[in-house]
Structure formats: structure tokens, C-alpha cells
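REQUEST FORM: STRUCTURE PREDICTION
Request ID: SP-0412
Submitted by: Lab K.M.
Chain count: 1
Length (residues): 70
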Amino acid sequence: MLSEKAFKAPKNKFRVIGVDTFDMDDSDWIEGDFKTKKEALDYAKERGGTMLKMHVYDDCGNHIGEGGSF
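STATUS: Completed
RESULT:
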């Protein structure tokens, strides 16, 4: 499980965190960092799926969007 620090993107970037909700341990990982909010949100919506959530965070650690479904 990722620490809270992992949810904060590098300065002026946006971070996508993947979560496998089918996994009994709700495995999560850093999927990637993106230069723009649009790139991160588009990626999350494209890569997320059933039982695979993609969450987008800004450089302050705020949750700003997601893709996929539980």
C-alpha cells in the first residue's frame, strides 16, 4: 500500500495512481506522472476499467479525477 506522500505529484505535474479493486489487498501503484491535467485525466479514463480504478492527484495531493469502476 502506498504512503500518503505517494499521492502528491511532483511540482507542476499530475499523478495517476492505479488501484486493483479485485485484489483482496486493494493493490495500488504509481501509474505515472503527467505534464497536464488533461493528459492525466484522459489517461485515467482510458486505462481504468471494471475493478481497475485510476485516480488523478495534483502536486498538492488533491484528488482531481478518476477513471474506471468498482
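NOTES: Helices lie at 37-47.
Reviewed by: T.R.
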